[in-house]
Amino acid sequence: MFGIIRLGEGTYYTSAIFACCRGSKAEYDYDKYYIVLNEKKTKLVKQPLFNPEKKPQLELMILFLDGNQDGWNIDDCGYGEVDFLNPGLMLEQIESEELPDEIINQCKIIDSQYSYKEDNEILSDADIKQLMLLSGGFHDAVIEEIHTQENGSLYVRFGGIWGCKIEILLEGDISYQTESRNPELYDPYWYGATMIRQDGYIYLMDEEDMKVEDISDESCWFRSRRVKYHVIPE
């Protein structure tokens, strides 16, 4: 697993993720936290999933770039840790900063294998999966800005996404329809999204599990030959 760790006011760093842990109230995601490297990459720390200072509001503090838990020891709910961390000692060692150096070094090696790029292009289904994970499926997204640039590309900035804004650039044979999300007439918020590649195009549509054939006058959608995106952590 790998993610963007938000520090607030637009500052952030990236880290591999080494454990997913229950908080004091196992039935609530609000108390969930993850084990990551600190910003200086010198030790492991507990990183809450949501900002505890904003409770009961849910302010997401980790933007997930990779949800792969291969090599983890996990339970049926997805909680667990990489196989070289001892679940019985891990939290005590992290909080007392007595985690062995060899464990820290192993975490650094895993972290160094990830290469984060601020600017990305959708070239495969794996790229779509990463964008959907990062954006939370565009849940609560709203189009904040949209305009055609001098070179003919279409710029769209989405706000409302938990923890970030996302800029999308569409290029080549562009079509779109956004009237159904016109804030002066209708609810502007997306509650989910589908992005698919089909017949040489990339489609982004404002409902989950949509097909191109499902697009109607009530849909908000985009289509182009190429799609690039840029994430702006808040």
Largest sheet: 7 strands, antiparallel
Taking Cα atoms only, what radius of gyration do you get, to the nearest Å?
20 Å
Helix- and strand-based class?
A: mainly beta
Pick out the low-confidence regions. none
Please report the distance between the alpha carbons of the first and last residues: 21 Å
Helicity, in percent? 10-25%
Would you list the SSEs in sequence order as H and E? Answer: EEEEEEEHHEHEEEEEEEE
Shape, per Cα inertia axes:
elongated
Description:
There is one protein chain. This protein is mainly beta and 234 residues long. Helices cover 12% and strands 38% of the residues. It has three helices and 16 strands. It has helices spanning 90-95, 101-112, 125-135, and strands spanning 2-8, 11-21, 33-37, 44-48, 62-66, 72-74, 80-82, 119-121, 142-148, 154-159, 164-171, 175-177, 194-198, 201-205, 221-224, 226-233. The strands form three sheets. Strands 1, 2, 3, 4, 5, 6 and 7 form a seven-stranded antiparallel beta sheet that branches. It has a five-stranded antiparallel beta sheet with strand order 8-16-11-10-9, with no helix packed on it. Strand 9 (142-148) and strand 10 form a beta hairpin. The longest helix has 12 residues, at 101-112. It is elongated.
